[in-house]
Amino acid sequence: xxxxxxxENAPNPDGAKTIxxxxxxxxxxxxxxxxxxSARWNSVVCESLVAGAVEALKSCNVTDITMEYVAGSYEIPxxxxxxxxxxxxxxxxxIGCLIKGGTMHFEYISEAVTQGIMRLNLDYKLPxxxxxxxxxxxxxxxxxxxxxxxxxxxxxxxxxTVVESCLLTKKYQKVLGS
Length: 178
Ligand code: DLZ
Description:
Layout (H helix, E strand, L loop, with lengths): L32 E7 L3 H17 L4 E7 L5 H10 L5 E9 L5 H20 L3 E8 L2 H8 L8 H23 L2
Parallel strand pairs: 1-2, 1-3, 3-4
Helix pairs in contact: 1-5, 2-3
Bound molecules: ligand DLZ.
């Protein structure tokens, strides 16, 4: 259940005044089993996002956190599928950082990973959070991961998002008796 809070959006990475973004309530995620699958490509950014997600999970009383790594974002959906198949998780956060280069790699991988993660959400009926940054350059990526104190660490949003979605899922799983 969400605790009372002042509604405030996560700050925009570029500091511009905006109503965009997520308000960040606190949820009680005690007892939830959360897995994080992170890519190692662009590891400075991914590690910062992972740290933000873990911090947010802990702030929601989540203590059962499993960390797994894969090489690149392309490997994330398959690894996440293996974790979900184990039945050991209430929800996952997928973390990766795609930075546009001079070839079509960015487009192909972004599309594949995005479709793959959505498929897992619907196939497994469990929250699989889309923590994949798709950035035009390194500066954008660092800003969105709070690297060097810049911008806002999106990993924090994803930690809270997975708890919120797991609680919603559990509420209706109980009603259905599944
Ligand atoms: C090959 C590649 C490239 C060019 N760029 C990225 C990137 O920006 N972010 C990322 O997570 N991974 C990248 N990769 C690696 C692919 O995700 C994948 O690991 C390889 O294509 C092997 O399947």
